[in-house]
Specification:
The chain is mostly helical. It has 19 helices and no strands. Helices cover 65% and strands 0% of the residues. The protein is globular, with a radius of gyration of 21 Å.
Length: 416
């Protein structure tokens, strides 16, 4: 497969579904879609001023600021499932961000499906995520049982299941369980629309499932017990467009998912138009800016992508412009792009800059060291190559790069 492209067919069922949920959550939930909030077709709590403030903090990746506001909402509304959903969403994606799992370059290749990476999530965080998910499902089960016409409860339950599916896929590689949760989220959303056809937010989960299921071979659907589920790619994209245009709390999510799916189908001009709009609208959202660079690279515009990566890094040098930017992601993406442009010397140097970032995860650091070693082999600087392979394969910590590093310790990398 050509470097810098994600024209792939997933060999396992959940990644496409849950990666969509992942990308969709980069900017949180939009509380001010394209027009005025559709107050008749959303849970009332979604329009609360403190909830809006929480999402505005989430838009710039101030997870702690968002959580403090969402926790205050939960304290005031302990029995409202959406209050727990706000905290669940911010908790999940703060952890994924700190684990360097919100960089889409990791998912551009099938290798992430078989990665040996062990993601060490603090037990307290895991317990909180499980407790919040279970609480939402329990509250919604009770509400739908007593009031079968409670459209907000169906939507809230589906949203929690989708969020939990993203977490267990990316952290635990639990693809089968995540796929089934994704199907449950779709079912809940379909029930929401049966009760209220104008509940545009519910169209997002259905759109994700429609596109994802249509992209999977039938035998994979059978493997996870969803062989009878229908899918249609264009219908999925149309549902996402509708949610983006009319949703109250999924407008931004749907736009980011739309960008991902268009990229999956190599419709790069359309995907870039969507992503550039998001990056322009939220210039201090580090991940939106980074994703525009990643997408430009995947579109085959290497020189243009390098300029976008460098613009992101330049803004990161401005005091307090980004909050807690994981600069290793940008440096790694820049190095990958330079590698694709055969700028091997700069690629080697920038992989090492990525590895040297103080908040770099051990997993990403060793990926960068392995790639730097490969570059030095191509430059015929074997001593430097060996040094980086040794770092990538050192005992303790992440071992996902060890096999490749040990292979190249014996035989130099040749680029073939």
């Amino acid at each position: 497969m050509r470097r810098g492209s994600i024209q792939w067919t997933p060999p396992a069922v959940a990644p496409l579904v849950t990666l969509a949920v992942l990308l969709a959550a980069f900017a949180g939930l939009s509380l001010h879609a394209q027009g005025r909030p559709n107050t008749l077709h959303t849970a009332p709590l979604n329009l609360d001023s403190v909830v809006r403030e929480g999402y505005q903090r989430f838009y710039i990746l101030d997870y702690d600021g968002a959580l403090s506001r969402f926790e205050s909402i939960l304290a005031l509304h302990p029995d409202d499932p959406m209050a727990s959903n706000y905290v669940l969403m911010a908790t999940v994606f703060r952890e994924l961000y700190h684990q360097d799992l919100l960089d889409t370059t990791y998912y551009a290749h099938d290798s992430f499906l078989s990665s040996k990476r062990n993601v060490s999530v603090p037990q307290g965080t895991r317990d909180r995520i499980e407790a919040l998910t279970n609480k939402v499902v329990s509250l919604c089960d009770a509400r739908t049982k007593s009031t079968p016409s409670d459209k907000d409860a169906y939507f809230a339950r589906g949203y929690a299941r989708g969020m939990h599916a993203a977490f267990i896929t990316l952290v635990d590689h639990s693809y089968v369980a995540a796929a089934r949760q994704g199907l449950s989220a779709r079912n809940d959303s379909e029930q929401t629309l049966k009760l209220d056809p104008d509940y545009a937010d519910a169209k997002m989960a259905i759109g994700i499932q429609q596109f994802a299921v249509a992209s999977l071979p039938r035998f994979l659907r059978m493997m996870v017990g969803i062989a009878g589920v229908s899918g249609n790619r264009e219908k999925g994209l149309d549902l996402l467009r509708d949610a983006a245009a009319h949703g109250t709390i999924t407008a931004v999510e749907s736009r980011t998912t739309l960008s991902l799916f268009l990229r999956h189908d190599a419709r790069y001009a359309e995907a870039l138009a969507v992503q550039h709009g998001l990056a322009t609208e939220y210039p201090r959202d580090y991940l939106f800016r980074l994703e525009e660079a990643n997408l430009t690279k995947d579109a085959g515009s290497g020189p243009a992508a390098i300029l976008v990566y460098k613009a992101v890094l330049a803004d990161a040098r401005k005091p307090e412009y980004f909050i807690d930017p994981r600069l290793q992601m940008a440096w790694f993406g820049l190095a990958d792009t330079e590698r694709g442009q055969n700028d091997i010397r700069n690629a080697a140097q920038h992989y090492l800059v990525a590895a040297d970032q103080p908040n770099c995860s051990d997993w990403l650091r060793r990926r960068a060291q392995l790639n730097a070693g490969e570059m030095y082999d191509l430059l015929h600087e074997r001593e430097l190559a060996i040094r980086n392979y040794q770092l990538a394969s050192a005992g303790g910590g992440d071992q996902s790069q060890s096999d490749a590093a040990r292979k190249y310790l014996k035989t130099p990398y040749t680029g073939k």
